Amino acid sequence: MMMMMMMMMMMMMMIMMITMMMVIIRMMTMMMMMMMLMMRMSMMMIRLMMMMMTMMMKMMMMVMMMMI
């Protein structure tokens, strides 16, 4: 009886461990995907910001020329 109980416990533990591992792996993959997306988005954002800055500079120059 005791041996049976122990075996059952061991099996349960193994199943739990496997499920946990699967969940962790899935989470990690999800995180990686998110990170990749974020990186891409950040790159796009930086590019956009640079474009905006250049546009602003051009506008400022135009305004200055007009003022003069």
TrEMBL record:
Superkingdom per UniProt: Eukaryota
Record's protein name: G_PROTEIN_RECEP_F1_2 domain-containing protein
Protein species of origin: Echinostoma caproni
